[in-house]
Amino acid sequence: MNTFADFGLIPSLLKTLKEKRLSKPTEIQANVIPLIMGGQSVVGVSETGSGKTLAYALPLLNHLKSLEDVGDAVKVENSPRAIVMVPTRELGEQVSKVFKTLTHDTRLRVRPALGGMTLAQAKKNTSGAFEVLLATPGRLVQMIEGGMINLSDVRFLVFDEADQMMDQGFLPDSNFVVESCPEDLQMALFSATVSTTVQQLINGLFANAEVVRSKNSGKVVSSLTTKNMIVENGERWPLFEKILSQRTEGGTMVFTNTREQCDKLAQLLVDKGYACAVYRGEMDHSERRANLKKFREGKVDLLVATDLAGRGLDLEHVGRVINYHLPKEMANYIHRAGRTARAGRKGLVINLVTERDRNLISKLEGNKPPSLEKKTTTPDGKQRVASTKRFKHLRGKPKVKAK
Q1: Which residues fall within 8 angstroms of residue 315, CB to CB, at 6 or more apart?
Q2: pTM of model > 0.85
Q3: Domain final position from 187, 213, 239
């Protein structure tokens, strides 16, 4: 399929896509949309920023509107025909914006019931008749058990950002939701990586689904530039401050591994006169959303975060990602790197590398060998930056001391 028009989408959706200047589908969209429109359950594994939301939203809305056009509109209150499950409120609000754009001309109703909002608000949102429910698993289970939502007419169920959802322990809730829906349910699962728990979900609920993997799934995108910089003697800050002095277009996301590291680095930045915002777990939901909004709107250029911000957030203006502390797992690295260079745009990832990061760097070199920058001192006392394609200088006897 070369264009969205080739899929046979209804005119109102094509009109919206034209207004958004979207004519050619991405790889995952081209492969998945025809399958979903044909009634097939699917698993889509594709790199971040590849357009997975449109891959399921377009055929889902197309099907629901087609039912309405032939006289089979939703009439029962609290009874959606499609459910999109997301792991967090922030991701739910992001997906909601995509649906809102797509339903401007198609005129279908999308209602949120997300964690972080009160149960009373979720109940109010889902009152009356509507077509699409956007929910977090825990909140949806709560509403099912409380008799606040009726799933007897659900035709389509989507697991979006399934890797993050399963990492948060939502596998039992996900199974419960599926069991609460009709047996002839069409389902779709989308993920950038496949963890052990996601594989369990695929093996169980998606045993008969068509699995589609994009050619770059599990890898960083080709429009991304990676720079590895060696941390000397455990001193991250001088190197980090030098990076910050280099101007970049767009915002910068800085990743740490723990909440304590996140808070410590944010405080250090503030003490040194840098404006920043924090995004991590165990923050008040309203504070986290406010910080994300400030960063999204460009009121602050630095967002210091844990892996909570590494998955699913679509922040178009991020030009640079800095791994102040590198993660241990490749999947987390892929997600972090996916916050920039989205939808074909260019982006930069800078990694502060210590000896303990050797295994991850070796894996990265297997995907796409990045250059490693290391400071060396010449006989005249001047410092130069040397580049090497391999990580040999960190093998054997350690030359740096991990912080």
Answers
A1: 251, 253, 295, 296, 339
A2: no
A3: 213
